[in-house]
Design brief:
Blueprint lengths: L1 H5 L5 H5 L24 E5 L2 E4 H19 L5 H6 L2 H22 L5 H9 L5 E2 L2 E2 L1 H10 L4 H22 L6 H12 L1 E9 L12 H11 L8 E9 L1 H4 L7 H10 L5 E2 L2 E9 L2 H12 L4 H7 L4 H4 E6 L6 H9 L4 E2 L3 E3 L2 E11 L2 E2 L2 H33 L4 H8 L3 E7 L17 H8 L11 E3 L3 E11 L10 H29 L4 H7 L5 E2 L13 H7 L8 E5 L5 E10 L8 H30 L1 E3 L1 H8 L5
Antiparallel strand pairs: 1-2, 1-20, 3-4, 5-17, 5-19, 6-14, 6-16, 7-13, 8-9, 8-12, 10-12, 11-12, 15-16, 18-19
Helix pairs in contact: 3-5, 5-8, 5-23, 9-23, 12-17
Subcellular location: Cell inner membrane
Family: Belongs to the PpiD chaperone family.
Protein name: Parvulin-like PPIase
């Protein structure tokens, strides 16, 4: 948490959802002092408001992140189930609390320092330097403009200064670090045997009476689930799009209307040097006019290439409008007059110009035709969707509607609530599978069902065609499976008995090798391992058990692949502690961060309590599209 605040907002995600890891602070029905709140705010802490627009943007951003992971849209109730509203508002109220405190301390950041932080942000760089085009792309994709980004970045930097100043010096005690490192670095090896089903001999099949008695106690394991079949009808713009129906006149008109987007804008190689004021900029220009080079001036001011070279950029990619105007006003490569920018006076130099280029119509025609056809298909699909809904509401069946609108219905075979067919394999072609299965098993034959969204613009409708209730299967139906399950269970029981016998004997002082030999096993010695070792021969459960006592300690635990492990600790070797070791440094850093995070969480909680906080529940529920109950 603290480290993310120090970095300010090193990614656009962090800027929008500033990386505080405080999940939430009881943002539903917050108690404490009630603060005044402006009409365009959803919540407030002290004198700092959280604007509705900012919350909506952050909420949509995080919701879309989940949608991309799931590959399907989220309803408001599903978003709430993921905890998105609580997480977003809790984080924003944490930010607001810190902003209010930063205001009280009078913390600020100069324009020059802010510009340097933005330029040095690794997440905004390509090939080691600030990339204007990439920066602009990120702004557009996150519905931000330059002014709002700079203002929010300024607030993030101020919060970072506050947190770093208050908590940045916290260090984990040396004794704690030593204890943690020593605990994790102790090295052990064990003598062990691994007992598997192969070590307990062939399991004779059960007689009919034994199997029948056993089956009665396990009948639920073999129960047939409820199965349902359905018919689905799908409407998507892609299915009805017809590029051939687009006329040449439509293609030409679209090309002329958006010609600028079918090529590359003019780009210029731009450099700029900032000065404290216009007088210094003018003096520097006079020196350049007198023979000094721009690069020499930059070197004299201690600037690296990345500090003044903006790269080859389009006008829209330049963050500061004043610099963009000055650079693209020049008729040819050369120097501008001093200009006043957002970050001070500047001299702007254009080194080279790449003229605008536009792709010819013949080259771009297939793309335009496909785009127009897709747009027309979306319009038609929208109208068809409403007409289909009206027809279904009027009592028409899917088959009748499909015939009327020239769509196709697809029968889906019987499946259980997980989407598996009667053969146990997943049924293919389910529309929005998770929602479909839920709706399918909440519906019934003859019931009209809510449509399902398919992709971005498609819709699917379904009817339940058959319901086969769940039932207990008879032993005769599942005899082969029952015998296999009984045999596996009996083998596991014998493995446990064998392991238990070896464990008790060795724990009581018997020779490990001799006891293992009685069971036809050979004692093996493991490679050395620590508590943090991965992929040990004895498996994680036995590895943990091996640290349960000193040398000579005997333990029994689960092993890999349904086996059992009996082990005896052979060597337990503590590793000398060195405070300068990489393990010690890493552990102290992590422990310090955990302590910092804990103190910061308490500080934010204290701020929200003492400053007063409030949430406009009515506005929140309206934004989320949920009821307040």
């Amino acid at each position: 948490m603290l480290d993310s605040l120090r970095r300010g907002a090193q990614t656009l995600v962090a800027k929008i959802l500033l990386g505080l890891l405080v999940a939430s602070f009881a943002v539903w029905g917050i108690s404490g002092s009630i603060t005044s709140m402006s009409t365009d705010s959803i919540a407030s802490v002290g004198d700092t408001d959280i604007r509705i627009a900012d919350f909506q943007r952050a909420y949509q951003f995080e919701t879309q992140a989940i949608v991309r992971q799931l590959g399907q849209p989220l309803t408001p109730s599903q978003a709430a189930a993921f905890g998105i509203p609580q997480r977003v508002l809790g984080r924003m109220m944490s930010e607001a609390a810190l902003t209010d405190a930063a205001n009280a301390f009078g913390i600020g950041i100069s324009d020059e320092r802010l510009a340097a932080e933005i330029a040095a942000d690794p997440s905004l760089q390509r090939d080691g330097k600030f990339d204007r085009a990439y920066f602009s792309q990120l702004l557009r994709s996150n519905n931000l403009n330059e002014a709002s980004y700079i203002e929010e970045r300024r607030e993030a930097e101020r919060r970072g200064q506050l947190v770093d100043g208050l908590f940045g010096g916290i260090k984990a005690p040396a004794a704690l670090t030593e204890a943690v490192v020593s605990y994790g670095s102790e090295v052990r090896d064990v003598d062990y045997v691994r007992i598997t089903a192969a070590n307990v001999g062939t399991i004779a099949p059960p007689d009919d009476a034994t199997l029948a008695t056993w089956f009665e106690t396990r009948k639920g394991d073999f129960r047939a689930p409820e199965y349902r079949s359905a018919t689905v009808m799908t409407l998507t713009p892609e299915a009805i799009a017809d590029p051939a129906a687009i006329t040449p006149e439509q293609v030409t008109a679209e090309y002329e209307r958006n010609k600028a987007s079918y090529g590359k804008p003019e780009r210029r190689l731009v450099q700029r040097i900032l000065f404290p004021n216009a007088d210094e900029a003018r003096a520097a220009l006079d020196r350049i006019n007198g023979g000094m080079t721009f690069d020499a001036l930059a070197a004299e001011r201690g600037l690296a290439d990345a500090d003044y070279d903006l790269g080859t950029v389009a006008k829209a990619d330049v963050v500061d409008p004043a610099i963009a105007d000055a650079a693209f006003a020049l008729a040819a490569p050369g120097m501008s007059e001093p200009v006043e920018t957002r970050f001070g006076a500047a001299l702007v130099r254009v080194v080279a110009i790449e003229p605008e280029s536009v792709a010819p119509l013949a080259e771009i025609e297939p793309q335009i035709r496909a785009e127009l056809a897709a747009a027309e298909a979306r319009r038609v699909a929208g109208e068809m969707q409403q007409d289909i809904e009206d027809a279904l509401a009027g009592g028409a069946t899917l088959a009748e509607v499909a015939a009327q609108f020239k769509l196709t219905t697809t029968p889906l075979p019987e499946m259980d609530s997980t989407g598996a067919g009667t053969d146990g394999q997943p049924v293919a072609g389910l529309p929005q599978a998770q929602t479909f299965l839920t709706d399918l098993f909440q519906s019934d034959v003859g019931v009209e069902n809510a449509p399902l969204q398919v992709g971005r613009d498609g819709t699917a409708w379904f009817e339940v065609t058959k319901v086969t209730p769940g039932r207990d299967r008879s032993l005769d139906e599942v005899r082969a499976q029952a015998v296999a399950a009984w045999t596996a269970e009996e083998a596991a029981r014998k493995v446990d008995v064998s392991a238990e016998a070896i464990f008790r004997a060795v724990k009581g002082g018997a020779d490990f090798a001799a006891e293992a030999a009685k069971a036809g096993l050979t004692v093996e010695t493991s490679p050395k391992f620590t508590r943090r070792s991965a992929d040990t021969a004895i498996g994680p459960d036995a590895q943990e058990a091996a640290f349960g006592g000193p040398e000579g300690f005997v333990a029994m635990s689960a092993g890999p692949d349904e086996s059992r492990i009996v082990l005896k600790v052979r060597n337990a070797v503590p590793i000398p502690y060195f405070a300068e070791s990489s393990d010690a440094i890493e552990a102290q850093t992590k422990l310090s961060e955990e302590m910092e995070n804990g103190v910061l969480a308490q500080y934010i909680d204290h701020l929200q309590t003492t400053l007063g906080s409030s949430v406009n529940q009515q506005t929140l529920q309206a934004i989320l599209g949920t009821s307040g109950g």
